[in-house]
Amino acid sequence: NDFDNKKLAATLVNRLSENPTGYEKLIVMCILEWMNQ
Length: 37
Hints:
There is one protein chain. This protein has helices at 2-18, 22-35. It has 37 residues and is mainly alpha-helical. It has one domain (2-35).
């Protein structure tokens, strides 16, 4: 459901913020964009 998606996205962002790469950031942005539709 929507809550689980937001929780998953938050987890991804938190993990990537420790050592993000451009590719990983792009994946997160795509996931967030997909969830917002």
